[in-house]
Amino acid sequence: MVGLHLYGAGCALLMAAHLGSMPWDVLHQGLARITGLSVGACMILVGAAVMLLWIPLRQRPGVGTLSNVLLVGVWTDLWLRWLPEPEALPVRCLMLALGILAIAGATALYIGARLGPGPRDGLMVGLTERLPVSLRVARTVIEVAVVAAGVLLGGTLGVGTVLFAVVIGPLTQVLMPLGAVPAPAPAPERSPAP
């Protein structure tokens, strides 16, 4: 739960900085603009729609998956209400950096908890298991498609979007050991009874 709260805070920091959001949030912002719903509500609806795409891909959600769909949008909306929207560029850059760091840390926590992938991660994995594409290709195609759709709908694309795309993977990898929950030990083998 801490990871999902942190994820929502990171998303809100990126949006409040107005320097460009992470790719999926460009889509969420665009949808919010045309529907009148909050960004968080759009996050929840998109997450649920993406989970429907899991059905033909035969992916199985975990409790973490469902929590991700339901809570990240709520936390994002709450944080957007609390955060200022500064005009000073140095403050906006600091918010961008803190947002990226928060999302990387949150990702390490929720993946490390082993309670199920986020809906978007499950889509990516499902595509690689069912189609002859690598993880890299699947992720890139998905991210480019959602950014393009988001921009067409009026979402915020900027230097922060590019910076996020470049640093989120390496930063998450560095932080993964902090959130890792050890895998359960295998059951001991029993010797046959004499």
From TrEMBL:
Coiled-coil ranges per UniProt: none
Alphabetical keyword list: Membrane, Transmembrane, Transmembrane helix
Transmembrane segments: 6-27, 34-57, 63-82, 94-113, 144-168
Protein name: Membrane protein YczE
InterPro entries on file: YczE/YyaS-like
Source domain of life: Bacteria
A Pfam family matched in the record: DUF6198
